[in-house]
Write a structure and sequence with these properties.
Layout: H1 21-28, E1 32-36, E2 39-42, H2 44-63, E3 67-68, E4 74-76, H3 77-83, E5 94-97, E6 103-106, H4 111-119, E7 130-139, E8 154-164, H5 167-187, E9 192-196, E10 206-213, E11 219-224, H6 242-253, E12 257-259, H7 265-268, E13 276-291, H8 295-298, E14 301-303, E15 309-311, E16 313-319, H9 321-331, E17 333-334, E18 337-338, E19 349-353, H10 359-374, E20 379-382, H11 388-398, E21 402-406, H12 408-412, E22 415-420, E23 426-430, H13 431-439
Parallel strand pairs: 3-7, 19-20, 19-21
Antiparallel strand pairs: 1-2, 4-6, 5-6, 7-8, 8-16, 9-10, 10-13, 11-12, 11-13, 13-16, 14-15, 17-18, 21-22, 22-23
C-alpha cells in the first residue's frame, strides 16, 4: 500500500480533549475520529488493527469450540421484561419505540436474546452443551463517556453464551472460556491476569475480570507476582479434557489476585512483601457463570434422560475489541508514539522512501514492497514529499514493527537501514539481507 493512495490524517498537535495516552495517540495517528460524545469513526489505520484483534478473538473462540452467529443490534423490550432486567438495567440502556409504538432497545448485551433463540430449538439434554458467540456493535449510554474508545458509548463486543444441563457442565464451559481468554490475550502480546470480580447487572455467583497492568490503568489491582511469569496454555490444549482444563484454571486462580472492589487487605498482606504487586490495571475481558438466572424466568428448559425437565445453566463471556485496541496502546507506547505487537499491527513493515521521485530509491522501494508481499506480509510505503524528519516522526507515531529506510546515499553502497520500532535498534544491511530478515 502506498501512503499517497492511503487515507491517513495525521495530527501533529496533541488534541486538548484527549485525557489518556491511547486517546491522544489514536487521534494523532489518524486511527479514529470523534463524531459525537463517545462515538467514533474507525479510520483505515485503526480499522486494520481492529480487524486483526477481532480475528485473533474469533480464532481462539473457534478453537475452544464456540460457534459464531450474528444477532441484531435492536432488541424487543419484551425479552428484557421476561427476564426482569428491563427496569433494573438503568439509564445506560437506550430505550426507543418503533413506528408502531413497540418498545425496543439498542442492545447493551444479549443474554435475553440468546436465551430466546436457544429455547426455540433446544428440546433435550442431547442439545447441550453449546457455546454460541457473536462480534457485534453495542450501545451503552454512559453518563460521561471518556478516554476515547476505552469508555465509549458505542463499541464492538465479542459476547459468548454457554448452555449446559447442570452446574458441573456449566463450570466446564466457564473453564473453556477462561483458558481461551488466556490464549487470546497472550497472542496479542499481553499478560492478562484473571481476577475475582463482581458480577454486576449480569448476575451470577462466579466471575473473573482479565486485567492487564498499565501505568495509565483505570483502577487499582492487587496480585501475587507469580502471575507475571505463568506460561500460557499451548494451542494443543484439549478443551474437552475436564480435569486438564480445571488444572489450568486452578493454576491461574490459586494465588491472590483481585480488583479494588474485591480486594481483601488481610489476605493480600499474607503475601511476602517482595511478591506483592499493587498496580494500575485495565480490564480487557470479563466472564460470568450465572446458573439459571435467565433460563428459569424465560422458560429455557430441556428434558433429561429420566424424562424430567429443568432449566439450563448458562454463562456469558465478553471481550471488547475496540476497548482492547486502546488497552494495547496503553501497554505498548513510548514518547514518540505507538509500538504495535506484531500480531495486531496494521502493517508488518513501513518502507520510507527518503527521495520519492528518484529512480533508484523508487525502484528499491518497489522491490522491497514486492518481496514483502510475496512473503505474505503487508507493507506501507511512505512515498510522500515529506522531509525525512517528518517521515521518521510519522513512522514512529503509527508504530509499525519494522521500518526500512531507503535513501540515495545508502543505495549508492547497495544498502538500506532497518529499524525495529520496539527496541529502536538500527542495522545497515544490503537490500537482500534486510529482506531476508523481514521475510523469515
Amino acid at each position: 500500500m502506498r501512503l499517497s493512495e492511503f487515507y491517513l490524517p495525521i495530527l501533529r498537535d496533541t488534541p486538548k480533549e484527549a485525557e489518556i495516552v491511547s486517546h491522544r495517540l489514536m487521534l494523532r495517528a489518524g486511527m479514529i475520529r470523534q463524531e459525537a460524545a463517545g462515538s467514533y469513526t474507525w479510520l483505515p489505520l485503526g480499522l486494520r488493527v481492529l480487524a486483526r484483534v477481532e480475528q485473533i478473538v474469533r480464532e481462539e473462540q473457534d478453537r475452544a469450540g464456540a460457534i459464531e452467529l450474528k444477532m441484531p443490534t435492536l432488541q424487543s423490550a419484551e425479552l428484557w421484561k421476561e427476564s426482569g432486567r428491563y427496569d433494573d438495567y438503568g439509564q445506560e440502556m437506550l430505550r426507543i419505540a418503533d413506528r408502531h409504538g413497540r418498545d425496543m432497545l439498542y442492545g447493551p448485551t444479549n443474554e435475553e436474546m440468546i436465551t430466546a433463540i436457544f429455547r426455540a430449538s433446544a428440546q433435550s439434554y442431547r442439545d447441550v452443551p453449546k457455546i454460541l458467540y457473536h462480534i457485534q456493535w453495542k450501545f451503552r449510554d454512559e453518563v460521561r463517556p471518556r478516554f476515547g474508545v476505552m469508555r465509549s458509548r458505542e463499541f464492538l463486543m465479542k459476547d459468548a453464551y454457554s448452555f449446559d444441563v447442570d452446574e458441573a457442565g456449566a463450570r466446564h464451559s466457564y473453564n473453556r472460556m477462561f483458558v481461551s481468554y488466556l490464549r487470546t490475550f497472550a497472542r496479542m502480546g499481553l499478560t492478562a491476569i484473571p481476577m475475582r470480580a463482581d458480577t454486576g447487572p449480569i448476575g451470577g455467583d462466579l466471575s473473573h475480570e482479565f486485567i492487564i497492568l498499565a501505568e495509565t490503568g483505570e483502577s487499582e489491582v492487587f496480585c501475587h507476582r507469580s502471575y507475571l511469569d505463568l506460561a500460557t496454555p499451548p494451542d494443543t490444549v484439549d478443551y474437552k479434557d475436564v480435569a486438564g482444563l480445571q488444572a489450568i484454571v486452578g493454576r491461574f486462580t490459586s494465588a491472590y489476585a483481585a480488583t479494588s472492589e474485591m480486594h481483601d487487605k488481610e489476605a493480600y498482606e499474607q503475601i511476602g512483601v517482595v511478591d506483592r504487586v499493587s498496580a494500575r490495571g485495565i480490564e480487557v475481558g470479563h466472564i460470568f457463570y450465572f446458573g439459571t438466572k435467565y433460563s428459569a424466568p424465560m422458560g429455557l428448559s430441556v428434558t433429561a434422560g429420566d424424562g424430567s425437565k429443568s432449566p439450563l445453566h448458562m454463562g456469558s463471556y465478553g471481550i471488547g475489541p475496540t476497548r482492547l485496541v486502546a488497552a494495547l496502546i496503553e501497554a505498548n507506547h513510548d514518547k514518540d508514539g505507538i509500538i504495535w505487537p506484531h500480531a495486531v499491527a496494521p502493517f508488518d513493515v513501513m518502507i520510507l522512501n527518503l527521495k520519492a521521485g528518484d529512480v533508484a530509491t523508487d525502484t528499491a522501494c518497489a522491490t522491497v514492497e514486492k518481496a514483502i508481499g510475496a512473503a505474505g506480509k503487508q507493507s506501507l510505503v511512505d512515498d510522500s514529499a515529506e522531509r525525512p524528519g517528518g517521515k521518521f516522526a510519522t513512522a514512529d507515531l503509527i508504530g509499525i514493527p519494522w521500518q526500512v529506510i531507503v535513501g540515495p546515499k545508502g543505495l549508492a553502497s547497495g544498502e538500506v537501514e532497518l529499524k525495529e520500532r520496539r527496541s529502536g535498534q538500527r542495522h545497515t544491511l544490503s537490500v537482500e539481507s534486510a529482506l531476508a530478515r523481514l521475510t523469515q
